[in-house]
Each structure stands twice: as C-alpha cells, then as structure tokens.
Amino acid sequence: MSRKSIILPKISKGGRRNRAGSPWIFSNEIRMDEAAKAIAPGSVVNVRGEDGRAFGTGTFNPKSLIAVRLWSDDCDVAIDRDFFTARLKRALVLREAIYHRPFYRLVHAEGDGLPGLVIDRFDDTVTVQIGTAGMERQIDTLIQSLEIVLKPKTIMLRNDAPSRGLEGLESYVKTAKGAGHRIAVEENGARYIADLAEGQKTGWYYDQRDNRAFMAGFAEGKTVLDAYSYTGGFGILAAKAGAKEVVCLDSSAPALAIAEESARSNGVSIQAVKADVFEELERLKTAGETFDIVLADPPPFVKSKKDLEPGAKAYRKLARLAADVTAPGGFLLIASCSHN
C-alpha cells in the first residue's frame, strides 16, 4: 500500500504520549516540512518515528492544532467499508449489552476507535456528527457501513458544530436518507420528543441519562425547578416520578413547546417558563420562592481559554443563585459541559 508518512522526531512528546495510548498528535510534535504541509487535509497517513518505528494509521490535517488522529496502532491499515463495519459492529455489541432499548450514543469518537465521529441512535433513526476533515472524507463509506450494520430508515447529518471551523470544514445539516426531523426518544421509561434537524447538537443529550434517573428518584411529592431545561429531560422524568410541581425554565420558546408536548405524551404536567435563567433566579430569590429540587444544566460558559475568567464567574453566580432557591434539606444538581 502506497501511503504518505508523517514523521515524529525523537524529541517529540507526541511519540511518548502515543506509546502510552494517546490517539492525538499535535502539529508542533511532528516534522512539519514542506512534504507534510502539501498533504491534503483529511488524508489517511502512516505515522512513524525517525528510526522507522511504526506508530499507526491515522488521518492528517496540516491546518489543525491536532494534526494527526490515530485510528489504528498498525501502519497501512485499510480505512474502508470493512474497517467501518467492524468498528460499528463492535460498538453495537457493547451498547446492546448495556441498553435494553435502541436509544443510545452508538459511537463516541476516540472511545470507539473512530476519531471525529459521534453517532446517536433513536431506534431506526441515527444522527451523525462529524468533526474532523479526516472523517468528512470518509462519509460515503461510513454511510455504507451504517446500512450494513443497522439498516436505518433515516440518517441525519448534523455537521453544524462550531468546532468544525478549526478543521477548515463548512457547517451544514442534511438528511442523507429518509425523511422526518421530529422523533420520539425513549429513556428511563419516559417518552420525549426531539427535533433532530433544529435541536441542539445531535438533537438529544444522552449523556445526562443516568443523572436524570438519579434525581428523579428524589422527586416524589417534591417541587422541582429544571433550569436550562431545554426540552425538559430532567423535569419531565421528575414529574413522571411523582413530583408535586415541576417548573421548566429556559430562554427558548421552541424548546419549551417541545417540553410541553413531551409532558402531555407522558400524561404529566409541567409549568413552562420562558425567561433568562439568571434573571428568573434573581426574581425567585427576591420573592423568597424555593424548590425541593433544583437542577441547572447550562450551555457551556467557557467555549475557549479567553472565556475562562468570565465563564468561571458565571458558574459561581449560577451556583450561588441556584443554592438560594433550593429549600432547606433540598437537593441541588449543577452540570457543566465546558471543556477548556
């Protein structure tokens, strides 16, 4: 197999990290000569040390800070339909051992040996989110493998994450197969409505599944405030678990409309409040209103290093205000999806 190679100098930290299992190699850790710069973004490459040692097969983007994302520890591995099919089957076997119903994150990027790829499954519908130039070049092959492994009725491409800009990729949302954007999600015995085309990220946040179930366990007979509720993931399950009152607070009217629809489909009621969360928490505090359970799962306040100081300040403010409206002896959960 004729394939270009990326060379790791002997002093490279990337080589040491890679030997320890890291799948990333940064641009300042490779020999970025003219030959390397000429390689097209997203190309499949071999990675070798100056001594010829093989570090594996990966995709390369000379324009990205993360220059190489390794897909295999071996060089000259064919990245083809058989490769994707094998990785998807492995991921599927693992999920089917954990979940009883086909609603879960099927692929979680490097965790499943597929850097730059997230796939969420909603029964016979899947949403695909691609974040790297390397995976973007493999999209047709990936879809072929999805057909072999799952045969989904609908494949939605949610390639609109801002991080794609770091890879030099355009942003788009596209239906690769099938039709229909609104679907039902089953989770923790509840039924939710999700909009896969207009909703945030892949349309649903599976990462909070266990936290929703955990907090719902305290909800019977309690009052609940679900701040930054989005489509009501926490609040609706709390209502289904017997909460006396559930308030879903969010600044998005469309998200709250879906939350109300989801509540009706579960035979429960919620109070949807459209407002800025900080302003509403201040109002509740001033009014002396409290809740037995307060949940706050905000969007990322820290999207880059420059946001660290104001973002940390915002998290402190949120924690203080949320605690102020939590009743004595109550429960408070605050989440963060900032990663800088």
Description:
By secondary structure, the chain is of the alpha/beta class. The protein has three domains: 68 residues, Archaeosine Trna-guanine Transglycosylase, Chain: A, domain 4, CATH 2.30.130; 100 residues, 2-Layer Sandwich (Transcription Regulator spoIIAA), CATH 3.30.750; 126 residues, Vaccinia Virus protein VP39 (Rossmann fold, 3-Layer(aba) Sandwich), CATH 3.40.50. Helices cover 30% and strands 29% of the residues. The protein is built from ten helices and 17 strands. The strands form four sheets. A five-stranded mixed beta sheet has the order 1-3-4-5-2. Strands 6-7-8-9-10 form a five-stranded mixed beta sheet. The longest helix has 18 residues. The radius of gyration is 23 Å and the shape is globular.
Placed side by side, the strands forming the largest sheet appear as 1-3-4-5-2
Q: What are the low-pLDDT stretches, counting only 5+ consecutive residues below 50?
A: none
Query: What is the SS-derived class?
Result: alpha/beta
Question: How many structural domains are formed by the residues?
Answer: 3
Quote the average pLDDT. 92
Q: Quote the distance from N terminus to C terminus.
A: 39 Å
Please report the total strand number as a whole number.
17
Number of helices: 10
Molecular shape: globular
- Label the CATH architecture of the largest domain: 3-Layer(aba) Sandwich
What is the CA-based Rg, rounded?
Answer: 23 Å
CATH homologous group name of the largest domain: Vaccinia Virus protein VP39
Report the CATH C-level class of the largest domain.
Alpha Beta
Order of helices and strands: EHEHEEEHEEEHHEEEEHEHEHEHEHE
| Fold-level CATH name of the largest domain | Rossmann fold
Give the biggest sheet.
5 strands, mixed
Helical fraction equals 25-40%
Instruction: Bin the strand percentage.
Output: 25-35%
